[in-house]
Amino acid sequence: MALFLRHQIYFLKFTLFPKFNLIMFFHQFLYYYLIKRKIHRYVNFCKALKNLNESLNSKTIMVDFEKAAIYTIHHVFNNTSVRGCFFHVSRNIWRHMHNLGFQQRYTDNSIFALQVRMMAALSFVPENDVENELLDSEFYLQNEEMLTPLTNYFEDTDWVF
């Protein structure tokens, strides 16, 4: 019933205000279609886009670290570079930091909180230089044992490109 209602709402928006809501309708349709985050849905969508325009092949596509989307982009658009959104890198590092039990220290110590947030900036450092940048950080050297699980997470997670 909700699904049917959603389609009706989208249809009404589209037909009542075609000039202003075409993009909104398309966005809502995509959200509805891709909401399950299944690889086959992403593949079907990307192949359909490519069929509409065979020359469609962006050099870079930015995503929010959905594995299905990342896989699909690599599969359908072979020569496209996938980049992650800085907001999502920061959010996932923050979540992992809390999962490691650092939330109290993060809340109580503003310097610690700032330094942990700054770790997300490592995503802008060329891959070959990340280790040197960490070793140049006095904060990291003073807290290396405690931060190792967080840096391992940053390094090992496949959403960091």
From TrEMBL:
Keywords: Membrane, Transmembrane, Transmembrane helix. It comes from the Eukaryota. The chain crosses the membrane at residues 16-35. This is Uncharacterized protein. It comes from Sipha flava (yellow sugarcane aphid).
